[in-house]
Specification:
Length: 263
């Protein structure tokens, strides 16, 4: 009887030992995967924060450049015109003097309004304060005032605020696309459409410029850097981008952005 029990005990002990080894191995592998996942997630968070800081700095740099051009091309010219009006006012022509005075006063009011608008853009927090749509409208306004482009902004759906970090990245992406148009497209018209859906923001930026071959984007060097930055940033916030273009047929870039936190 005892001889029959001993093998059973040995087999049971082996099975128990194997189960214990299996459980320990399973827990060990699970913990390793969990640690690897947490480490990867932390790395992605770090990359996102680094990209966010880079985005803030680039927005500031681009904003300062736009402000400099706005002051030089628009505000500076308007002030020069006011000065000319004041210098040519003559008491001997009271009717003409009154007209020039009224015109100068209106121009000065516009300059003050423009300066107030520019002052709000000196800090990247202005996107959070005035909203993404208003910030984009300001950017398009600067392009329109240059007289080089016919601008169309189309808003569909009810505007919904995205998390501040996401709006910052989206704004920089739109800014980058507009900058590419100015530098490379040789366009005369820009159409920007923003469509707000329940869980999605779709942005379409379209121009009537010279266009390009999207298949050659990977081998393009300087001209393709901006678009590659756009693709990288959109993917970092779980968005997607599609590029439609052909030589001589303009360019259309569509962004789809979920309205949830990426990280």
């Amino acid at each position: 009887m005892e001889k029959e029990i001993i093998p059973i005990v040995l087999v049971g002990s082996c099975i128990t030992l194997l189960l214990a080894v299996f459980l320990v191995s399973f827990v060990y592998l699970y913990q390793r995967r969990q640690f690897a996942f947490l480490r990867e997630k932390q790395q992605i968070r770090g990359q996102f924060q680094e990209e966010l800081l880079k985005t803030r700095l680039e927005i500031q740099e681009e904003t300062f450049r736009s402000i400099s051009e706005e002051i030089h091309d628009n505000i500076g010219q308007t002030l020069s015109f006011i000065k000319l009006n004041l210098n040519t006012m003559t008491p001997s022509l009271p009717d003409r003097q009154e007209e020039k005075w009224r015109e100068s006063k209106d121009l000065l009011t516009r300059v003050i309004q423009d300066l107030r608008g520019l002052s709000r853009t000196l800090n990247t927090d202005f996107i959070r304060d005035i909203g993404l749509v208003s910030a984009v409208r300001q950017q398009l306004g600067m392009l329109e005032r240059s007289g080089l482009y016919k601008i169309q902004l189309e808003l569909l759906g009810e505007e919904k605020a995205l998390p501040a970090n996401r709006e910052l990245v989206v704004y920089r992406v739109i800014q980058e696309l507009l900058n590419n148009i100015v530098k490379h497209a040789e366009a005369t018209a820009i159409h920007l459409r923003m469509r707000y859906e329940s869980e999605l923001l779709a942005v379409v930026v379209e121009d009537d410029g010279v266009g390009f071959d999207p298949e050659h984007l990977a081998v393009q060097e300087r001209s393709g850097i901006g678009l590659r930055n756009v693709l990288n940033r959109i993917s970092m916030i779980n968005g997607t981008a599609t590029i439609q273009s052909a030589r001589g047929a303009g360019t259309k870039i569509t962004l789809h952005l979920p309205q949830t936190e990426a990280i």
